[in-house]
Write a structure and sequence with these properties.
367 residues; alpha+beta; nine-stranded mixed β-sheet; globular
């Protein structure tokens, strides 16, 4: 890429924050460039790049955006207080992907719980992802065919409510869509949905992914709380901007999601449940300020099925919290904890570092 035409927008981790002052606003601006069909590349491996700030060369982490500049782009970045630097030497990036706008469907029909759906809508809107709502009737009518990515949010159970709305026909359409065309991001109940059941009595999963939850539909065996996950695939795009070095952990809100057990090498575990942090019990109640994070406060204060350390150790520890698999080269990403609920402290919710799991997932599913 010629030097005079490009700038780099880094997304490197700085402890529990991002090099960008407001990572959500930064991604929103990047998405606006993508929607305008500007040349935007996503750095997928570490690269040494010579910039105006670091003419001697500087290593940038995966997840940075490289944008072909023009006067309007520079003005928008400056106005948005986005940190960027001009590239001052010719360079070749072998591991970068050009990002393009994709059609995203967000499932909002029967089975999608408002307390899960509303925070997710807030995050993807603020990040500038264009999406359309699809409900159970839309899917049964075959309207998924025009979409590239389907997001299925959390729900009130381990998949039963999805079947209530979609039925056999809707499930068949979902299986065909994921197998033949679409990419899939599932969170919590949406992560239960594609799993494979070992029981003939469980009609509520799609039996698409070579992974299961050994407790089947008993989501009630855990509860709600704050957990630490350990990222075990540090170079995977889902974790861009969240890793540095070999060992990386992330604190998140958990709400009765699956303890995923891969059943074959086709399924890659990206992160595991590593440690219990806090919950709504008298002995484990968080002693810090949760700031403006209403979903995190609800998980601690307003739900009577409370996770305990004993339950964590019995049902979650070392099971997969995030997995990836492919069906006919279509990608499936499953998140058991709730990235859309934001941080469990440290910063205000609107600056939550864990939101990168949402944007990274959607960018990854787009190519």
């Amino acid at each position: 890429m010629p030097q005079e035409n490009y700038i780099i927008v880094p997304m490197d981790r700085l402890g529990v924050t991002c090099v960008q002052k407001d990572l959500v606003k930064t991604i929103n601006i990047i998405n606006s460039f993508i929607s305008q069909k500007k040349d935007v590349y996503w750095l997928t491996s570490e690269a040494k790049i010579h910039t105006e700030e670091f003419p001697e060369g500087h290593f940038f982490a995966p997840g940075a955006f490289i944008v072909k500049k023009d006067t309007d782009i520079i003005e928008i970045l400056k106005k948005g207080e986005v940190y960027f630097s001009g590239i001052v030497s010719d360079f070749k990036i072998e591991n970068s992907i050009r990002l393009s706008k994709k059609k995203i469907a967000l499932y909002t029909g029967k089975g999608a719980a408002e307390f899960c759906l509303n925070p997710l809508i807030e995050v993807i809107r603020e990040m500038g992802f264009n999406y359309e709502n699809v409900n159970d009737h839309d899917i049964r009518k075959g309207l998924l065919d025009s979409f590239d990515i389907l997001i299925v949010p959390g729900g009130p159970d381990a998949g039963e409510s999805y079947y209530h709305g979609l039925g056999n026909k809707g499930y068949s359409i979902l299986k065909e869509y994921i197998s033949s065309k679409g990419n899939y991001l599932g969170i919590c109940a949406g992560a239960y949905l594609p799993l494979t059941s070992t029981s003939e009595n469980n009609r509520f999963w799609l039996n698409l992914v070579d992974a299961t939850d050994e407790q089947e539909l008993d989501y009630w065996r855990t509860g709600t709380g704050f957990l630490r996950i350990k990222i075990i695939e540090n170079a995977h795009p889902f974790a861009f901007g969240l890793t540095a070095g070999n060992i990386n952990t992330l604190d998140m809100v958990y709400w009765e999601g699956p303890a995923i057990k891969p059943l074959s090498p086709k399924v890659k575990s990206l992160a595991i449940f590593d440690d219990f942090i806090a919950s709504g019990t008298s002995t484990d109640y968080p002693r810090w300020d949760l700031l403006d994070n209403t979903p995190a406060k609800d998980a601690i204060n307003n739900w009577y099925n409370i996770l305990t350390r004993e339950r964590f150790n019995k049902y979650l520890k070392n099971f997969s919290a995030v997995i990836e698999t492919r069906i006919n080269n279509n990608k499936i990403l499953l998140y058991s904890p709730h990235a859309e609920f934001g941080n469990i402290g440290i910063t205000q919710r609107k600056y939550s570092q864990v939101y990168l799991l949402i944007s990274n997932g959607l960018f990854y599913l787009s190519f």
